[in-house]
Amino acid sequence: MDPAKVYLKRGEGRSFKAGGAWIYDNEIDRIEGGFENGDIVELLDFDDYFLGRGFINTGSTIRLRILSRKKDSVIDAAFMERRVRDAWEYRKACVDTSSCRVIFGEADFLPGLVIDKFEDVLVVESLALGIDRWKLTIVEALKKVLAEDGIAIRGVYERSDAKVRLKEGMEPAKGFIGEAFDPRVSICENGVRYIVNVEDGQKTGFFLDQKYNRAAIQRLCKGKKVLDCFTHTGSFALNAGIAGAAEVLGVDASQPAVTQAEENAALNGLAETVRFRCADVFELLPELERQGEQYDVVILDPPAFTKSRASVKQAVKGYREINLRGLKLVRNGGYLCSCSCSHFMDPELFAKTIREAATGAHKRLRQVEFRTQAPDHPILWAADSSYYLKFYIFQVVEER
User: Fold this and answer.
1) Per residue in 349-366, is it b (16+ CB within 10 Å) or e — as a string?
2) Deepest in the core among 41, 62, 279, 285, taking most CB within 10 A?
3) What pLDDT shows up at residue 307?
4) Structural domains of the chain, with CATH
5) Vertex 337, ends 279 and 195: CA angle to 5°?
């Protein structure tokens, strides 16, 4: 049976035609032919011009997720294997692949799918109905491709437990794909060892996107007093410790995260140098200021304060507040490392917010560098959702 045909309204599809990966419900004029949600359909312009093939889901605002723009493309198991192979070859060229993100959704032309590799374990996050039908095929293809490089995968765990699946008409899903295994995985990154809990850790178990940003702070921390806010399982704090920091305090509101961070510190022989505290950062920073504490390096790595455009204004207040409080704790000539992982907090707005915080704290900022997510989380131009992480390092100086 021929695939259904989806026709755009005249003048619509501008973001897609500029290189984007999605077609929204309000851009579609009509659909011809039968289909089920999750099927692969053809996308055509108002004048019958072929534009691409992708997954359809009438239950989602994102009506189509495009897989290919080629008219002669055949979407089958061989197609998925080529996509996987291309993604792996790219990682081998660009990053340390011992632990890395192997598939990053639209940026790897596999919309709605994320696969992280932690040594010999894969963690799968499937967030779109169409790709969900193919996830087992893709996992098997990935295991085959990795095996060709001598990498034997001992287990696969699914972490498709994000609420966004509900927008696709799917229930959250979590559990082993195939045989069960120990979900606590030992990895090493930047010379730091971690235990990653792929079953109960946040997202897929560990935030790989900050890999090279964590390495970048090491040169600032030797012999220094460091404060790491929103430390999660201790990654920035431990990079500071392994670099020879004199004293490190990591803070997180989650006791399980702090417990894991303490275990990671012991694993690296840093339990005496790198300490952790379970506390609300927004409450702790003013308390530290009242106590007269000063740090050589302050790191701010908060969770996304906004996941929609509607809440951006409120998020700005949160980012401004933690940056202002963090700046007041940096001694003259010290360093502030500040980041945002929210796609909706765009680079210009984030920079403006930090600038306002510096003005409020009566500090001058000298930018050391601006960084973004690691290359295994590639930014596909025109596919805006793939660009989300902003990371600044500043030297902080008193107004003079």
Assistant:
1) bbeebbeebbeebebebe
2) 285
3) 67
4) 5-68 (2.30.130.10), 77-184 (3.30.750.80), 207-398 (3.40.50.150)
5) 60
Model pLDDT, residue 226: 98
What is the set of active-site residues? 341
User: Which tokens go with 90?
Assistant: 């790219």
Q: Which parts of the chain register pLDDT below 50?
A: none
65 token code pair: 């997720």
Contact 100, 116 (CB under 8 A): yes
Please give the C-alpha separations between residue 176 and each of 141, 155, 180, 328, in angstroms, as whole numbers: 17, 8, 6, 46
pLDDT tens per residue across span 51-105: 999 999 999 999 999 999 999 999 999 999 999 999 999 999 999 999 999 999 9
**Is residue 222 a contact partner of residue 247, using CB atoms and an 8 Å limit?**
no
Residue type, position 152, single letter? A
Please count the helices (runs of H) and the strands (runs of E) in the chain: 10, 20
> Which residue type occupies 363?
K
